[in-house]
Amino acid sequence: MGALSELIATESLVKFFGNITALQELDLRIPKGISGFIGPNGAGKTTTINILLGLLKPDQGKARVFGFDSWHESFRIRQKVGVLHERPSYPGAFTGQRYLEHVAAIYGVCQSPTKVQEILKTVGLSDARDRAIKTYSAGMIQRLGLAQALVGEPELAILDEPTANLDPLGRIEFLEKIKELHQKEGTDFFVSSHILPELERICDWVSIVNHGIVVAQGRTEDLTAEYSASIFKIEASDNDLLASQLKETGLVEKAWTEAGTLYCKVRNAKDLQSGLPKLLTELRLELRSFQPMTNNLEEIFKSVIGRDKE
């Protein structure tokens, strides 16, 4: 189904919840490294993760992790994967040290108290290992979740919205810790999030999902290069009129508005640059802004999701 070098691969994955289609023909390819799984809330990210872990059975299609079928061979997958679920809960009376020892015992992982202390040090909780979890801050709770995901020394850690409850500085610190762990320990990461700017700092690969479909995926640098070369932001005195005429004349492949700004995807940037002035004159419109889209992951997300809404 996919190359052996792929950590995660899905093929035409479909999942229904009653009349709701959570995933529709989802084709996901995740290589080794740090990968971002990006999409708005309700896009299907958590459903995908639960299928990958064997917690949900797909209605159609296939999913594999390390080449193992996610439903029929889920035990073998969980032996190699650590997980931080979205909105986890912890026993507040436990200390961080006691909790991790308890988790290790449940999963049959041979982790001595000394080893657990090393993991707590790795995630920056060494000084708080004997404190009750109920006294931890939001950032400390997330680092405890990361420690839980790493307690079995997994080859791959899947993190579902790991920075959702953190302030901007806390998100940066948490993601930098992931980058450090990948570099020093060789652990690969699959990070699901709808918070984009910080992910660009650490991700080698990005998959963007919306309405249960992968709408773009690839190496981060390749996506930024591709979309910077083909997406323009335009502001005119009547964006809606200009958008409709740009599509009618064939100067652009796609055109949509987002927060008052007109975005255009083009096949040939020179055609747009030469044809736009004439069109503006014919329509008697004022051009207020015209610029290539900055090679920024958040801008790519906006353009892809905007295009997907059409």
Enumerate how many helices there are, as a single number.
Answer: 10
- Helix percentage: 25-40%
Which descriptor suits the 3D outline?
elongated
Q: Radius of gyration over alpha carbons?
A: 23 Å
Residue-averaged pLDDT, rounded? 87
CATH architecture of the largest domain: 3-Layer(aba) Sandwich
Pick out its properties.
six-stranded mixed beta sheet, 37% helix, Rossmann fold, 310 residues, alpha/beta, five-stranded antiparallel beta sheet, 10 helices, Alpha-Beta Plaits, 15 strands, 2 domains
Q: What does the model show?
A:
By secondary structure, this protein is of the alpha/beta class. It has two domains: 6-218, P-loop containing nucleotide triphosphate hydrolases (Rossmann fold, 3-Layer(aba) Sandwich); 224-308, Alpha-Beta Plaits (2-Layer Sandwich), CATH 3.30.70.1510. 37% of the residues lie in helices and 27% in strands. The strands form three sheets. The protein has a six-stranded mixed sheet with strand order 7-8-9-4-10-11, sandwiched between helices. Helix 3 packs across helix 4 and helix 8 crosses helix 9. The chain starts with 5 loop residues before the first strand and ends with a helix. The mean pLDDT is 87.
